[in-house]
Structure formats: structure tokens, C-alpha cells
Amino acid sequence: MRAPYLPSTHLLTAFLLAATCASAHAQYPSKPIRMIVPYAAGGTTDVLARIMADKLGQALGQTVVVEYKPGAGGTIGAEAAAKSPPDGYTIVMGAPGSHSTATSLYAKLPYDPVKDFAPIVHVANVPNSIITNPSLPVKSVPELIAYAKAHPGELTYGSAGTGATTHLTGELFALLANVKLTHIPYKGSGQAMVDLLGGQIQMMFENLPGAANQIRSGKVRGLAVTSLRRSAAFPDLPAVSETLPGFEVVAWFALFAPAGTPAPIIARLNAESDRALKTAEVREKIAQAGSDPIGGTPEELAKFLAGDIAKWVRVTREAGIKPQ
């Protein structure tokens, strides 16, 4: 009589592991999730992160904790996210400074923006704005260009850090307007805004959501937006392209997880994020912040990221910016 078949130890171990993993995925999330913001509090990344953290927390039944890790144009926070366990409990609100411009600005980036991350969802696109301290005697882009030409190198602009779009917008503007500006990098837009209000710097190419309240209050003077056309949130602000034809810079913000995060968890995070971005409440909040909500699939985000990396490689090369 043949002995009953018994599965090998290896097969049994594999079966139990698969069952355990499936159970863990089904129970996800079972504890709070941290959302890394690779810039200081107060900037656009912070605004959008808090909107998404709130809605994701409600949908997932767990608190989504916003954690700030600023510095090096967003690369410090991105590196921390890339090297976190790929278990779905760490995600990051990426931006051009951490995921696209970084590839052409840093010679030894400690992570690969494509290979080391799993795309989740494209949250929003955001035009930058040109804002100045009201004491600067200019009220339009043509006046700004004329002033900069009359005072070469004297105009200082702050940014969220080297490589952020708030930096590269200034580089592109100076290149196309044929003027010389002095860049002052900060660890985040919030810190730069404080110095702009205090008169320590004269201007910023700040993301529109981060500048919106200051523009409306009159604490800073809004000169223009960097989208190809005027923003619906600020229809009175001209586009830079009205003075410099073809000028366009649009920042973007998206959620990523460390590479290797299980596909079912990415799918869950994408579904809940995309659902939130389709609600009237979230779309209104994002629009009030001067941003355009996007949404979509992880695959669409991956394709978008590849195109943006290629774009900024061209821009930095034409501007003569050397990798650090």
C-alpha cells in the first residue's frame, strides 16, 4: 500500500509564507502610515500632503502621519523613503526636486528616482508664480526684466532648495530674459517666504499654492504665473509667456512608495487616492490652493515621470548647470 503523499518542507514553508503574506495584505493597514514630505513645513508639498493624508486616513481607517525631512532640494527625504521597508507603511510626496530634476543636478544621487520607487498616484500639477517684496519697484514682468538688466546680479530669489522647480524656474527665466539673478537656496519654501516678507531676499518663483495667501493679503506682489496660460485661481495674473513666448514651468506632486512594496498594497493606495482626488471636496481644496488635481494609475504616473526627467535634463544642459 502506497504511503499518503506529504508535501515537502520547502513546499509547506512556501505555502505558509504565501498565506501569511496574503493575510497581511488583506489586513493592510493595521497601523499608522507615515507620509514623508521632503521639504520644510509651509510650502506647497506640505499643503497637498495634508489634504491627501487626511482623506487617505479616513479611507484606510488609520492615521496618516505627515513627517518632514527637508534638505538638499528634497533628496534627503526621498532617500529616507527609498530606504524604508517596502511594506506600505512609508510613502512620500514626491516633486520635481526629489524625483526628476535631481537626476541632472546631482552627480551622485543616493537613490534612483525610477528604480527605487513604486509610483502610486499623480496628485496635482502646480504652476509657479513670480512674487516680489512690495518694496521692489516693479509691478510687471517687463519691469522686472528691465530692473534686473539695470542691476545685474543684485536681485536675489529664494527657493525650496537647489534643484527644486522654484530654483530652476529662476534659472530658466534668467536664461530666456537674458538677465543675471542670484539664487539663495533654503531647506523649504516656507523659510524662503519668511525672508521674502522680511526683505532679506527680493523675489521668489514660488509654487502658486504656497504663495496664494500672501498674494491675496498683499504681503507680496504677484507679477505672473509660469503656466502657459493664466491660472483660473488668479485670472488677473498674466502668464510669463505673455512676455517671454513659450515660457512654461509646471511643478507636479505625486505619491510614491519604496520599490518592492507589494502590488496589492500599491493598488489599494492608488484606488483610495484616486477616489479622493475625484471628490468635490478634495478637488475644491486643491483648486483653492492654486493647483490642478490629476489622479490616474501608477502606470500613468511612471510615464509622466519619465517625460519630466527628460525635459529637465534638456533644460539644465541648455542653462549650463553642472551636476554637483
Cα Rg: 22 Å
Give the tally of structural domains. 2
Q: Could you name the ranges where pLDDT drops below 50 across 5 or more consecutive residues?
A: 16-22
Instruction: State the total count of DSSP E strands.
Output: 10
Overview of the molecule:
This protein has 324 residues and is an alpha/beta fold. It has two domains: 33-125 and 250-318, Bordetella uptake gene, domain 1 (D-Maltodextrin-Binding Protein, domain 2), CATH 3.40.190.150; 127-242, Periplasmic binding protein-like II (D-Maltodextrin-Binding Protein, domain 2), CATH 3.40.190. The protein is 43% helix and 19% strand. The chain is built from twelve helices and ten strands. The chain has helices at 9-27, 44-60, 75-82, 96-99, 102-105, 141-150, 165-177, 189-198, 208-217, 263-277, 280-288, 298-318; strands at 33-37, 64-68, 90-94, 117-132, 156-159, 182-185, 203-207, 221-225, 250-258, 292-293. Helix 7 (165-177) links the parallel strand 5 and strand 6. The longest helix is centred in the C-terminal third of the chain and has 21 residues, at 298-318. The radius of gyration is 22 Å and the shape is globular. Residues 16-22 have low confidence and may be disordered.
